[in-house]
Design a protein that fits this description.
By secondary structure, this protein is an alpha/beta fold. The protein is built from 23 helices and 21 strands. 25% of the residues lie in helices and 13% in strands.
């Protein structure tokens, strides 16, 4: 606790001391009544797991785990998989012993191996720095030779380090196929695109659940006719298997999807329900019929609503780890080596004005991490790849007196974060024009300024005083550059090349008092530029950033928010010694497990430089009109000032 007294925490976080003390006392006073809801966003930073260790520690000390009102809540869509622990009866049915009788049990034998997708956006390679391979054996990926995915634009089109993948990784991949019901950025780079039904057009039922509510939900089949010549996702796989059966003269490919081909796909859903601990006893037809009538079904979890840790706290059942108890000290050799055997604070790996990724605190007898020299790394090597494995320890004062290497070398100034918009779902909120118009202050259905890529466009929120100091007016177009070593992609960057033109980020600046000085923000959700959209932007008569060949519509003229991100691999999330719960089912094993113990792969922060590109006024002349009318922060007219003060209510 010597390292994190209120004064030190205030200096690091910029939160007032009295607020820190007040929050601590409120949590301590409200035992079993303090709910700390941690959204998915805070998990998607390089050192996000250290935040979770600290939160669990505070909640354990104050009796706020495993009760109705006192608990820790988190969210990710993938968490729902744990509710269907019978899914193996579908995804792992033995292909050499296929059960064709719908009344019999399925034989399970898994021939495939899970791997983390988060090496793919790290140039499709594990983490080797200096003289050490930091990626454990259970985590090691194989080179990507083909990609086949559905409804997942974040796998490629909105991937962290997207342009690194486009320029350097995709040329090594032999085939990419995408199933989607929007022509997303991923479709732009696919060899094959399978058009699939939207939710409103489902011809086959499907089942889902959520960690945020207690219901078992079924998508019923739709009476609506398909708008286009589409197929269900499951029909795509069944159809491909039928083609393989013909190609290889092997009917097992057909047998594996028998109940799709004969119109009885509910058999597969029933098998999953019968084998899942929270759904056993439900009949898929009955649940589907009730869902059509608006009658819900409950997942049969132990508590209602769901209370994570309830069994462990109320019934003293074991946690899914080595000791069966909450573990705040990590005794694994790797954690000791990396200086994280105790919960510590590390600065983020890139998005900080200070020295990145340093452990913050005074010397402690239990914290003795290996220094960079141990790995054959020069003491002054602070490059992006090296920073992932550096274990330098700074006191609070040392941290506050340090600077980011990009500030020292190139004069970079701002932390740049790219969170998801709370009312959006990945990249879906910008797929239709009305949403693009409403997504920010630059919406214009008439596109009076033909520079606009569409009826709405990407922008960066920046503190007004910071912008003025950089010579940037509200609404101006600005270039945004991150670490030139590896962004927008690694390797040589020829200024006039198609690759560099594609990937260097150009967007609007929005004055926004809601971000503090030295911090900036763009929303994650918008479609980025592609080779085709840039061709359209430069050649289309109307200037739309619309691919003339595919119809893909970008919300950036050049680049995207992913121009400034990259894949990062955190050493403590890649060990072979960690005992953890399996992804599916109540078993524990060691090492890699998808979505349970692996790199988080979704870093949202970087450190950047802003350079004014063009005036914000129409055609690049003068001030952006809302600012010139006195409607924007720091430009307020007397009428606007009167409005802000409520003067028109008198």
């Amino acid at each position: 606790m010597e390292n994190f007294d209120p004064e030190s925490v205030s200096k690091i976080t910029w939160a007032p001391e009295e607020a820190i003390i007040g929050l601590a006392r409120q949590i301590a006073k409200n035992k079993e009544k303090t709910l700390i809801a941690v959204g998915m966003g805070p998990n998607q930073f390089f050192n996000g797991d250290l935040k979770d260790r600290a939160i669990f520690f505070v909640c354990a000390l104050t009796k706020n785990i495993g009760t109705h009102s006192g608990n820790i809540g988190s969210f990710a869509g993938n968490y729902r998989l744990a509710y269907f622990d019978g899914i193996e009866k579908f995804i792992s049915e033995d292909p050499f012993n296929i059960e064709l009788d719908e009344t019999e049990d399925v034989k399970v034998k898994q021939y495939f191996k899970f791997e983390s997708a988060h090496y793919f956006n790290h140039s499709d390679k594990p983490l080797r720095v200096g003289n050490k391979l930091f990626t454990g054996k259970t985590h090691i990926p194989t080179p990507t030779k083909s990609l086949m995915f559905c409804n997942a634009n974040s796998i490629l089109g909105n991937l962290k380090g997207h342009f690194e993948a486009v320029v350097n990784t995709l040329p090594n991949i032999e085939m990419i196929s995408v199933s989607d019901w929007w022509w997303s950025t991923s479709c732009e780079y696919a060899d094959i695109v399978y058009p699939v039904d939207s939710w409103a057009e489902f011809k086959y039922p499907d089942v889902t659940a959520s960690v945020t509510n207690p219901f078992l939900q079924v998508f019923p089949t739709s009476p609506l006719k398909r708008l286009h010549d589409t197929r269900s996702d499951i029909e795509i796989y069944s159809g491909l298997s039928a083609a393989f059966a013909k190609q290889f003269n092997d009917n097992k490919f057909n047998d594996y999807w028998k109940f799709v081909q004969n119109g009885k796909a509910r058999v597969y859903l029933q098998r999953i329900l019968d084998s899942s601990s929270m759904t056993k006893g439900y009949n898929i037809k009955e649940v589907e019929e009730n869902c059509e009538k608006g009658i819900p079904a409950l997942l049969m979890s132990r508590t209602y609503p769901k209370m994570i840790g309830w069994e462990q706290i109320q019934e003293s059942k074991q946690w899914y780890n080595k000791t069966g108890r909450l573990e705040f000290y990590r005794e694994e050799d790797e954690f000791i080596e990396y200086g994280e055997n105790l919960p510590v604070h590390r600065e983020t790996v890139d998005g900080t004005v200070y020295e990145p990724n340093v452990i913050v605190g005074k010397k402690h007898p239990a914290i003795k991490p290996f220094g960079p020299e141990k790995y054959g790394i020069l003491k002054n090597d602070r490059s992006a790849e090296t920073r992932q494995v550096r274990n330098d320890i700074f006191t609070v004062d040392q941290l506050l007196n340090s600077t980011h290497p990009l500030k020292e070398k190139y004069g970079y100034t701002h932390v740049y974060i790219t969170p998801k918009y709370r009312h959006g779902a990945h990249t879906m909120p910008v797929d239709i024009d009305v949403m693009a118009i409403l997504f920010g202050p630059f919406g214009d259905p008439d596109r009076k300024d033909r520079r606009m890529p569409w009826v709405g466009e990407g922008y960066v929120d920046i503190n007004p005083e910071d912008a003025k100091a950089l010579g940037i007016e509200d609404g101006d177009y600005v270039w945004v550059d991150a670490d030139p070593e590896d962004r927008p992609y690694s390797g040589e960057k020829k200024k006039n090349s198609e690759e560099f033109r594609l990937s260097r980020l150009l967007l609007r600046a929005r004055y926004y008092n809601g971000v503090p000085s030295t911090v900036s923000r763009s929303w994650f959700n918008m479609y980025g530029a592609t080779y085709g959209s840039i061709k359209g932007h430069l050649e289309n008569i109307d200037g739309l950033a619309k691919n003339p060949r595919t119809g893909y519509q970008a919300m950036f003229r050049f680049g995207s928010h992913q121009s400034c991100t990259r894949g990062w691999l955190r050493p403590t999330l890649m060990t072979d010694s960690m005992v953890r719960k399996n992804t599916i089912g109540p078993q524990i094993e060691k090492g890699f497990a998808p979505d349970v113990y692996c790199p988080n792969g979704a870093p949202r922060d970087s450190f950047v430089k802003f350079t004014k590109a063009e005036d914000g006024g129409i055609g690049g002349t003068g001030l952006w009109r809302p600012a010139s009318l006195g409607l924007r922060p720091t430009y307020e007219s007397k009428t606007m000032e009167k409005f802000i003060k409520g003067g028109f209510l008198q």
